[in-house]
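anyone seen this seq b4? input:
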Amino acid sequence: KKFEKNLKNILFLIKKVSYLINPECLIFLQTTLPPGTTEHKIIPVIKKIFKKRQINKNPNIAYSYERAMPGKDYLNSVSNFWRVYSSSNSYAGSLCEKFLKTFINTNKFPLTKLKDITSCETAKVLENTYRAVNIALVDEWTKFSQKLNLNLYDIIEAIRVRPTHNNLRYPGLGVGGYCLTKDPTFAEVSAKSIFKLKDLKFPISNLAININSKMPSFSFNWIEKITKNFKNKKTLLFGLSYKNDVGDLRFSPSIKLAKYLKKNKFKLNFFDPHVSQKELKTVKKISKYDSLVNYKIFIFSVNHSTFIKNKIIKKIPKNSLLIDLVNFFEKKKYISEFKKKNITYRALGK
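predicted toks r here
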């Protein structure tokens, strides 16, 4: 039902455009779509309107999904990264290739053309599903490592030396943003709503979504266990966005964690230079390191490069508890600094 509703919005826009465009122009689609949407839903609508306009030709459609990294390197990631594309006909393909070459460094990052648009839509969905499953897999091993008091970071680094395994993810608070939280469901949407393959299931993809959505809950339960004897639960959360060096809060696991903490009587404030107070009114924002002396518990949930590690260590008061969910203090020299100040350091996956 949600797909049908969202599809109506897309098709509404497509209809408006189709009544106005020059039939020779290129319609370039970049948004993530369930496989088959362009060829089985969008193109038929354009053809129908072209027929009403007495245009006796097929539309020129191209599809190339975004591969950009939000944050300080966003522009660089748009220009200096591999792109996959496809098109409804060879003319549309040549127009798309010409357009992409105007801003992508194709000498170093050559384009990949797939035979049809459904294949290209599938590539995007599978790419993000692989990442979501990878993250979910590591979540299982994070829990195992916590129980056995193992350092999963050291273990994964030892594994990643092997080139075939160098994309194994690290432990973390969870998955956020607009892509990994929904894209793994698109294959099943495609199978059922577009191709009517009712018997086709995607258990691993759906399980990954479910596991990743529960990771903030696991982190909170772990934090609650660590702090059960604390009378003073004045807590500062470092980072609210879903990813480092951005202010995007969409489906942020840090937001979920903040809600768990607030609900369970933690006296919570947050520090995130990328996020304004109006974006999360229920939790007060602090803007300077100087006020760290007022807190007893410090939780790092986002690895912003604007967080200055040495400066933070100097400002954190003695006898505090520091909980690291993202391996922010990864170097051993920081641990020795904590010992000098009698700061208890606990890290997820270590």
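The longest helix spans residues 117-148. The two ends are 42 Å apart (CA to CA). kinda curious what u guys think
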